[in-house]
Design brief:
268 residues; alpha/beta; six-stranded mixed beta sheet; five-stranded mixed beta sheet; 17 strands
């Protein structure tokens, strides 16, 4: 919807509806010092994970808390780690009033993501239902995938904002690849790889030679301090997030169809 400006085409502005991807941080404590320490520990290996990204402060876990929340130190802790709080949601009426007084706007209460339900494909009707749901999930606008076809050296960083990243050359030690979606590296991955940068827990990391300094998906990371399993170290593998844990799995080669045998001529 666009609100037509008064005064014709020379008006100073237009009002338009828009939908923006926003990160949400669910507070479990109103202690600003504890929040700052937790952010510092989480982001110690990925200080560039956030770039003043807008964030909604989710107060659902603190809704029943009787003590008032001191928002100023909490917001300062978020800004210190390059997060830009713009709204609050899920709090009690008193908490939301305090949030508005601190300069935040009010966002709709967060709704939990529906848990996936098992689907048994036994009848045609079930198959139709699955197809319909898949198409509902497809976004209206598709962000182009970023493709990098040169090696990345130490100190270089590539960020695929809003989409996937494909790298066709080596990501060397000290280099960093970041994507809001998936990361594909069709070469040795030895630097840092950060997928799901805006909180996409469905993002994955793929590499034909997995031996990174750091891998992270939606803020959950793992460094070289924890050795990779032997079945994926230096081998084709994928990394995904399952129940807030990084799971690394080898990529298996697809089954090859057997070559057709040449027919031998029958003896005369």
């Amino acid at each position: 919807m666009t609100v037509a400006p008064a005064g014709g085409d020379d008006a100073a502005f237009d009002l338009k509806n828009t939908t923006l991807p926003l990160l949400s941080i669910a507070l479990k404590s109103a202690d600003a010092a504890a929040l700052g320490d937790a952010l510092a520990a989480r982001l110690s290996e990925t200080p560039q994970l956030f770039n003043h990204d807008p964030v909604v402060v989710d107060l659902s876990a603190l809704r029943e808390q009787e003590d008032p929340i001191a928002f100023e130190p909490l917001l300062a802790a978020l800004r210190e780690h390059k997060l830009q709080p713009i709204a609050a949601a899920g709090g009690s009426p008193a908490q939301m009033e305090a949030a508005l007084a601190a300069g935040l706007s009010e966002a709709p209460d967060p709704t939990p993501s529906p848990k996936p339900r098992p689907v048994e494909i036994r009848e045609v009707e079930v198959v139709k239902e699955v197809v319909r749901e898949v198409f509902v999930e497809v976004p209206a606008a598709i962000t182009p995938t970023m493709v990098v076809d040169r090696p990345l050296r130490s100190g270089q960083q590539v960020y695929a904002k809003g989409g996937d990243l494909v790298v066709l050359a080596a990501v060397n030690f000290g280099a960093e690849v970041i994507a809001d979606g998936h990361i594909h590296v069709y070469a040795p991955l030895r630097g840092k790889a950060i997928a799901g940068n805006k909180g996409n827990t469905q993002a994955r990391i793929f590499s034909t030679c997995l031996e990174p300094e750091l891998i992270a998906i939606a803020g959950v990371y793992r460094t070289t301090e924890t050795a990779l399993p032997a079945e994926v170290h230096g081998k084709p593998a994928q990394v995904r997030l399952v129940d807030d844990k990084l799971v690394m799995e080898p990529l298996k080669e697809p089954l090859k169809e057997p070559k057709a045998s040449k027919a031998r001529p029958e003896p005369a």
